[in-house]
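Form 7-S
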Amino acid sequence: MALWGQETRIGRPPLFRAARGPLWDIGGTGANFSTGSAIDLPKFHATPTEMSTRPLSLFAFAVATLAPVPLLALGVLWGGIWLWAGFLYMALLVMLLDQLIPHVAGNAPEGAEFPGTDAILLALGLAHLALLPLAVWAVAGASDLSVGGRVMLFLGCGYWMGQVAHPAAHELIHRADRGLYRLGVAIYTTLLIGHHASSHRLVHHRLVGTDEDPSSAPAGMGFWTFAPRAWIGSFRAGWAAEDALRARATRGGVHPYSVYLGGAVLSVVLGGLIAGPWGAVVWIGLAAHAQLQILLADYVQHYGLKRAKRPDGRYEPVGAHHAWNAPHWFSSALMLNAPRHSDHHAHPARPFPALRLPNDAPRLPWPLPLACVLAMLPRLWRRRMRPHVAVWDDPQ
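Output:
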């Protein structure tokens, strides 16, 4: 099936400017992304008139995010078409729908309320906590799945945990409600990256786009160099930030890192209780699969975008030009509007249905999931992104 993408030309055009010609010569060079490969890529025009006046509904978010869960669960029980459906939903359908249906959801009105938002996040959090041990049993335990079926389930569940459970946890750790916040921490802890709940809020949001932020990749750094730097750096920086809060007596009680580390150990032990040593291995593998996608998202969404340092040594305020965005509708629904990343940094507490697409923000030339795939090929990624990053080297 032929794919298309939204053309991005070099320059600083409005986010929804008319495009001419097909998008992606992924393997080629140059600033004009015209087709140069053997694949015939049909055109996508994302013009201002094609941007809907209506934001995505909560129903759309609920369906997009929750639909894979019963497919994967039924795949555990019966395999066959259900397993294929769950796997293909996460691995292929997302990118196909982004490419084949040229829809850009509108921005919600300022101050709009979405009373069902927390219910969706609660459902996703509980679904994750149920799906993870179920997947461990099905992949490593005494299920009736074939070897191929187990691999497919592993990949499908890992994609869902990285592309859906992670955005849900990300939303939850920004909630003021302590119960919702703890659910977000539980998701990250079971994925063996509990420290993300501290480092993301206390370090990344404060230092994004600077050399001090482990989760902001400078231009030219490949993903496989960035990943260990980001994981280890954010672990240490988050711990230091939590210690600093306690030193100022603004926090008390159990240290969050005790929860993160203790919860990670208990999670792996639970995997062993579910399916023996291989259960522990599979739990770690699923967590690593999800962590890979978390790190890819951080890498892609801030790649090469730096905050200027003022004469007094302070950095300029975080602006719309310090994060990459993507307008594609279905991946936005699946990832709870995570591709509208600039607005999240401007308004961290803003609920995901209300996130907006700034007209003056950098935009990825591909849907976010596809950009993450390309980021795993460092030479190709750097070549394709170089002209886009150059536009934003001088934000003035």
